[in-house]
Amino acid sequence: MDWHRIRSDFPILDQQVNGHPLVYLDSAASSQKPRAVIQTLTHYYERDNANVHRALHELSNRATEAFEATRGKVARLIGAASEDEIIFTRGTTEGINLVANTWGTQNLRAGDVILLTGMEHHSNLVPWHLLAQRTGATLKHIPVLDDGTLDLAQLDTLLTEQVKLFAFVHVSNSLGTINPAKELIAKAKAVGAVTLLDGAQSVGHMPIDVQDLGCDFLAFSGHKMCGPTGIGALYGRMALLESMPPWHGGGEMILNVTLEGSTYKPPPHRFEAGTPDISGVIGLGAAIDYLQAIGLENIQRHDHNLANYAVQLMGEVPGIRILGPLSGHRGALVAFHLDFAHPHDLVEFANSHGVAMRGGHHCTQPLMRRFKVPGTTRASFYFYNTLEEINRLVEVLHLARKFFA
User: Fold this and answer.
1) Which residues belong to any copy of the Aminotransferase class V domain (predicted)?
2) Does this model's pTM top 0.90?
C-alpha cells in the first residue's frame, strides 16, 4: 500500500501547528476525515438535504436511498445476517445505553449478575451501574493483570449461570490490549449469558464478523473510523431486537397512535425515533466505502506495525512506563506515564512542538487506579500515520525530559 499517497487524502494533516508540521496522534479519540467523506457531506447539504422516510418528493427520496444504503454497508462491514439488525445511534455510548435501557430493564432482576472487566471505558461501566441500581442486579469484574491483559484464570469462577450479561471491550482504549473476543463470547454462551462487545476501537481497524464472533450486541462509533461525529451503530441479533421494547418514543418508530396508546414498528426502526442524523449516516457510509477500498486487513497490519515500532522506540526513553502488552499483537495506541512530567503538562509541551496527543484518565478511571497512576499520555495511530511521525514523537519525548528536568 502507498500509505503516503493515502495520507494525502486527509487535508487537515497538511498544516503546521506552533511552527511545526502537525503530527496527529489522537485517533483513538477521533479520527480525521478523508476528502471522500467531506465531499459526501457537502454534496448532501448542497443537493439532497431533506428529511427521510416520510415524504415522496425527489430530495427526500434521494436522502432516504443514501441513508438506508448505509444500513446495508454497516451490515456487510461487520458480517450481520440482515441490515435490519443495524440500529443507527449517536455512537458507542448510546448503543450501550440503548441495550441497558431496553433488554437490560426487561430481563435483569435482583440476583442476576452483569459481568464486566477492569479495563472498561466509562461508557461500558456507567450504564450498567445505573441498571444495577434500578434492577438490583450485581456487577462483577474480570481483573486486569500487570501486563494489561485480563486475568482469564478467574473466568470460570466469575462466569457462572447467574451471569445474564457479559459486556466487554474488544480493544482497550487505554492499554491497546486486544481481548480474545470469540473465546470469551463462546464461554459466555455456554452458561446462557447474553454478550455485548464494545467495538469502538476495533471496528474500522480490523475485519469484524459478528456471526463468526457470536456476539449478541456490538456497538461502535463513526467518528473513530473516518466518519462524522455524533453517529454510530448498534448491531443486535434479530431474535433479541424483536423482543426488546422501544427506548425513545416519537415519530417514525410507530405503526399506529391513538390518544390512548400506540403500537411500534419492527426493528430497526422501533429504536430510531425522530429525525435522525441523516448527514452523519450518509457520511458514515462514505467512510465505510473508503475504508473497504483500502482493506481492513491492510489497515490492521499497518496499525500493528506502527504500534509495535512505537513500543520499541518509546521504551528507550528514560523514565517511561508503558501500559499494556509490550510484545505481540496490540491495538493502534500506546499509553504511557513519564516519571518526570504529569500527562497534562506533557501533552501541552508536545502540542508546542506540533504533536497532538491526549493526556488524562481516558474515561477509564478504575484502570488508572489499578495501575496507580494519575493518568497517562496516549499516542494513538491510524493508517494515515507514518513511522517518521513516531520518530518525531520520540524526539519530542527526549526534548520534554530535558525541559522538565
Assistant:
1) 23-393
2) yes
